[in-house]
Design brief:
alpha+beta, Phosphatase 2c, domain 1, five-stranded antiparallel beta sheet, 10 strands, 31% helix, 24% strand
Length: 296
């Protein structure tokens, strides 16, 4: 049985050097954090991202020890609900550390994101939308789990530890991307028409295929991963990843122990290399209740 864990996080956000406003938003609690990147003219993008993180932050789901008492508001089901459920069950059961009840936790996360999608649509009437990526640190059947979700191209990464071979070849620390972008270029990469390097400079690299609040495809991807004491995750908008290499981000995450300081260092690095978009980053450490993250 895993000892209880909570999140100790540091965050930073900036409108960047070329944008007039900041359409990013973030939320951090003891068990959940998320980054949203709004899209839309006349400040509608700011409304969309703010409504997204407000819905997540206010949801009782992320405040309950036993999520089974959370009332699920059923969103419109996936186009093939049977295939969706079978896929979730198959993926979770590939890892013997993931309990069966995690399937229902995935369903509950989808429900909260559907509520956010509806709130945004009601407020902006399809004139705007937002990406979102987030993590929920949750205990199920005595095991601590990261429940990671995303819609759009905001990302969640994890700093790889020694057990994952990080730095084993002398190449320095490594981060692993836990989410998969919902974007045109990612689709082209997945079918082999583009390389990852080509995707970085493709003219349609910012065109996303899923977002909350647009009235179009909103469904998130959700992953369930074992959580361990000392885990360090990073959540960010594309204003960070478009400016910094994975190697640079990994070095900062591995060398700056204070999560807030690490977030600030990453933000300033993105501004120095161009700051062409809004930049938001959260560095989240898994610690025991009452314990401070390193240097916090």
């Amino acid at each position: 049985m895993s000892a209880p864990l909570v999140i100790r996080a540091g965050a930073a956000t900036d409108r960047g050097l070329r944008r007039e406003s900041n359409e990013d938003a973030l939320v951090v609690t003891a068990t959940m954090c998320a980054v949203a990147d709004g899209m839309g003219g006349h400040e509608a993008g700011e409304v969309a991202s703010a409504l997204c993180v407000r819905t997540l932050g206010a949801s009782p789901l992320f405040q309950l020890e036993d999520s089974r008492s959370f009332e699920v508001l059923e969103p419109e089901p996936p186009r093939d609900i049977a295939r969706f459920r079978a896929t979730v069950e198959r993926e979770l059961r590939l890892d013997p550390e993931i309990p069966d009840d995690a399937i229902e936790a995935v369903r509950r996360v989808r429900s909260v994101l559907w509520q956010a999608d509806q709130h945004i649509q009601d407020a902006v009437e399809g004139r705007a939308g937002t990406t979102v990526t987030g993590v929920w640190l949750h205990r199920i059947d005595g095991r601590m789990l990261w429940i990671v979700f995303n819609t759009g191209d905001s990302r969640t990464y994890r700093l790889a530890g020694p057990e994952a071979g990080a730095g084993a070849d002398g190449g320095g620390p490594v981060i692993e991307q836990l989410t998969v972008d919902h974007s045109e270029v990612q689709y082209l990469v997945s079918i082999g028409q583009l390389t990852s390097a080509q995707a970085l400079v493709h003219p349609r690299r910012n065109v996303i295929t899923r977002a909350l609040g647009t009235g179009q495809v909103w469904e998130p991807d959700v992953w369930v991963l074992p959580a361990r004491h000392g885990d360090r995750l990073m959540l960010c908008s594309d204003g960070l990843t478009n400016e910094l290499s994975p190697a640079h981000m990994a070095r900062v995450l591995a060398s700056v122990p204070h999560p807030k300081e690490a977030a600030d260092v990453l933000l300033q690095a993105a501004l120095r290399t161009g700051g062409r978009d809004n930049v938001t980053v959260i560095v989240a450490d898994a610690v025991r209740p009452g314990e401070y993250a390193p240097g916090f």
